[in-house]
Amino acid sequence: MKRSVLSTLLALAILLMALPLWAITAETYTLSNGLKVILKEEGKAPVVTFQVWYRVGSRNEILGWTGLSHLLEHMMFKGTSKYGKGEFSRIVAKNGGTENAFTAQDFTGYFENLSSDRVWLSLDLESDRMENLLIDPKEFQLERDVVKEERRLRTEDDPKSYLIEQMYGVTFLTHPYHSPVIGWMEDLNRLTPEDLQRHYRTYYRPNNATLVVVGDIDPKSLISRIRESFEKIPRGPDPPAPFSTEPPQKGERRILVKREAQLPFVFLGYRVPNFRDPDAFPLEVLATLLSSGKSSRLYRSLVYEKKIALDTGGEYDPMMADPELFYFYGMTQPDQAPETLEKALYEAIEKLKTQAVSDKELQKAKNQIEAQFIFGQDSNFFQAMQIGTAESIGAGVAYLTTYLDNIRKVTPQDVMGVAQKYLHEDNRTVGILIPLKPEQ
Hints:
- By secondary structure, this protein is α+β, with helices and mostly antiparallel strands.
- It folds into two domains: 25-230, CATH 3.30.830.10; 253-436, 2-Layer Sandwich (Cytochrome Bc1 Complex, Chain A, domain 1).
- It contains 16 helices and eleven strands.
- The termini are far apart.
């Protein structure tokens, strides 16, 4: 048993020492039309993930036209003059692959996971729909109804999601992050096929995209085939830069949402910097200390010990194009008031401001971050997602290369410093869900 544990620790140590070199092996190219291509050879299995990332999301939308990026993601599967409706997915499935897409605030991505000898399918399919998408008015109407129903199910009929959406609208007054990725229902109702066509022609250009391929590939031969498929697509005008300035917050903001629900829910959001600021690394460690898993400070204190909450958690994602939120949340026990839970959350935060975290607890948090990052390298898909995200938000592959070194450098004083700097009342937005009984 001891030998097994020692072997595992030794293997992890070897991975830790070797990891900073992983991103250096990725080969980067830029085609004549501006398309950036990043290829990473991973020969562990004869499979490949092929991903196309467009630098457009809800951050690039304005009020009145929110939801365009997400709706366009849906329409990208509706066919071109070469491949009709549904053929894209059928072809991939017929060849034993899987495909899907995602839209976020800063980007929209499309991917196929295939056997490595089928990578030519992605070259053909993705280059075709980058340039030749058809937006049929009837298909547009059908897909818009699908998105509206998705919004009803995921947001309007979910009290917690509804609260978070409303809270973002209060937190960001001018920045596009105030709007949901799926769009506001009123905007979805007024969108037209012409709006979608304009959005497609503006942002779905090779000079606004990154192609990431990770897996059992030969980069030198694959880049030749990529040039043949994609370089013929003409470069478009550079898309307009999104309006991304948010004025400083001058005091606490609060929002109460009264909805039919079973239990109160408390959500705390603090304005913090993104990856561009060195504070991002101690903030990430701080988030792990407070809210990552059932051994975190918040869960141990509020769920196990004080029995105030049924559940707690939180998140900080530095990988955003612009500064976003560092947030915590909790759902009360049936016999507890939201005010009690809110106070307990503040007490846990204040403790980090006045008492330095122990070396043991700090190392545990760093180990959690490192383990998640390292073991993710076993997945071609995870690696490509990391690369695509970093490139799409402006961090670049270099950020990933030095990521763990920067996490390891975080000290107890760094954690205390960012807690004092950012987790204070004037920088806070509070959202509270007040449950209503069905008859109300």
